[in-house]
Design a protein that fits this description.
The complex is a heterodimer of chains A (113) and B (114). Chain A is mainly beta. Chain A has one domain: Immunoglobulins (Immunoglobulin-like). Chain A is 0% helix and 48% strand. Chain A has strands spanning 9-13, 18-23, 31-38, 45-50, 53-56, 61-64, 70-75, 84-92, 107-112. Chain A has a 5-stranded mixed β-sheet, with no helix packed on it. A 4-stranded antiparallel β-sheet of chain A has the order 2-7-6-5, with no helix packed on it. Chain A is globular. The model of chain A has no long low-confidence stretch (mean pLDDT 89). Chain B has 114 residues and is mainly beta. Chain B has one domain (5-113): Immunoglobulins (Immunoglobulin-like). Helices cover 0% and strands 50% of the residues of chain B. Chain B is built from no helices and 11 strands. Chain B has strands at residues 5-7, 10-13, 19-24, 31-37, 44-50, 53-57, 64-68, 74-78, 87-94, 104-105, 109-113. In chain B, strands 2, 4, 5, 6, 9, 10 and 11 form a 7-stranded mixed β-sheet that branches. In chain B, strand 5 and strand 6 form a beta hairpin. Chain B is globular and about 40 Å long. Chain B starts with a strand and ends with a strand. The chains are: A mainly beta (113), B mainly beta (114). At the A-B interface, strand 4 of A face strand 4, strand 5, strand 9 and strand 10 of B.
Amino acid sequence: LAKTTQPISMDSYEGQEVNITCSHNNIATNDYITWYQQFPSQGPRFIIQGYKTKVTNEVASLFIPADRKSSTLSLPRVSLSDTAVYYCLPHSISSGSARQLTFGSGTQLTVLP
Amino acid sequence: DAGVTQSPTHLIKTRGQQVTLRCSPKSGHDTVSWYQQALGQGPQFIFQYYEEEERQRGNFPDRFSGHQFPNYSSELNVNALLLGDSALYLCASSLSVTPYNEQFFGPGTRLTVL
């Protein structure tokens, strides 16, 4: 399983764009990158998933460069309610192991007023 | 459409006791996974159930066991509780036929072992 490295914590102010980068040097060819968000005392929530280049949905964008050794989650115009822990998870979707999610320690994002 | 539900919300046990946690998956989902999350850590995979069988298992001792019922709901059992078993236990459900791996998590059960 690929090992990931994320910043332990980040601070931002309301209305700013936040970029959280995750390093995953030994990602497998068929691995996708998924990001989850977790609020205190709640289960993680799926945010976005991608394989390469850029993916955008209603809440975030995900940038994955051509070498796929890192990925960046971009949150546009954050609000106080975006304060949470964000996890980056590489995983395969082509085998039975796809259902096992391997979480690291994540990045604690704190949005300040 | 109800999401993933778990019961109980909180539980306090003493060392050596046994505990059973319950999970109902999101409507239409057939696969249930269990995770343990210690304070300040990311969730750690315990095991996964599909078609009433354990399909995958993480690095957890045999004290941790589970079951899946025909209606896809699931139970997690922990025997001979240790202080270190205190954690948030999360259940996640997914649909086996989906090509990607979006899992839906419940709110968790907070287990405290004294």
